[in-house]
Design brief:
The complex is a heterodimer. Chain A is of the alpha+beta class. Helix content of chain A is 21%, strand content 34%. Chain A has helices at 25-38, 82-88, 136-144, and strands at residues 40-45, 48-53, 59-63, 66-70, 75-78, 94-98, 101-104, 108-113, 119-123, 128-131. In chain A, the strands form 3 sheets. Chain A has a 5-stranded antiparallel sheet with strand order 5-4-3-7-6. A 3-stranded antiparallel sheet of chain A has the order 8-9-10, with no helix packed on it. The longest helix of chain A is centred in the first third of the chain and has 14 residues, at 25-38. By secondary structure, chain B is an all-alpha fold. Chain B contains 5 helices and no strands. The longest helix of chain B has 40 residues, at 90-129. Chain B starts with a helix and ends with a helix. The chains are: A alpha+beta, B mainly alpha.
Chain lengths: 145, 130
Amino acid sequence: MKIEFQEKKEIKEVEVSVTYRIWNEEVEQIGNCLGKMAKCISGDENGRQYRIPVYSIYYIESMERKTFIYTKNQVYCSRLSLSEMMKNLPETDFVRISKCCAMNINMLKSVRVLPNSKLEALLSNEEKIIVTRNYLKEIRKKLEG
Amino acid sequence: MIIKGIKRSFICMSVILLTLSLVDGVTENSWESFSFQLGILLACGVVCLWQLLISKWELPNYFFEVFINFVGSLAIILILGKLLGWYTNFVNVGYVCVEVFIVFAISYFLGITKIEKEVKQINEMIAKRR
């Protein structure tokens, strides 16, 4: 497989084209990966609606009947519940880490056991979130692919 | 989660049965009686439900979870045991308490070890992905 990157100043968004001789499993996998990257969900910030690319989300948290979407620098709000949101993200790298929180597995840097036996996940933006023990298996499964 | 609950309650109940068989409180006739066997199954079911409830609560502290689990399971076993007439005197109850405590103490340390092992595996997987 040949990978080529081209810089074009005139285009507004990243363009990806896949050239293949025969449609096979490899091409299908590339398509699935790109599909995941291109997936967006909507969220509000200061009354404005935004489309948030799924790959840029660190974690999603549900609190007092509101769902918050955390990216590197922004926090968006959504009217959808965490379960509804997870239904929209079935083939993505999101994994439930507690009753009220789901995390993007690609943003996970490490997990550690705290002295009181709580589990803490360190994300790539150095943010720390609590993981419930019951969901450890799911994290491992997601990492295994 | 259901399988985990059933497994845990069966471990707990098997220890209780072992205790009952070792102490003088339960006679040979009791073991053969249908109501006694039904009582054991009933206790097993109630303990199983309790275990499932505990798992659903997602208590943040593992020690606290195991402790609550221990107190709850012991209370269920003691109350049901008393209602079903398993205990003839307090000596047997003491045995049951000690046995259940040992089971939970072991399960706590095994649980902690398992969690640490899983966390280590997860960190290794993350390192491999990078």
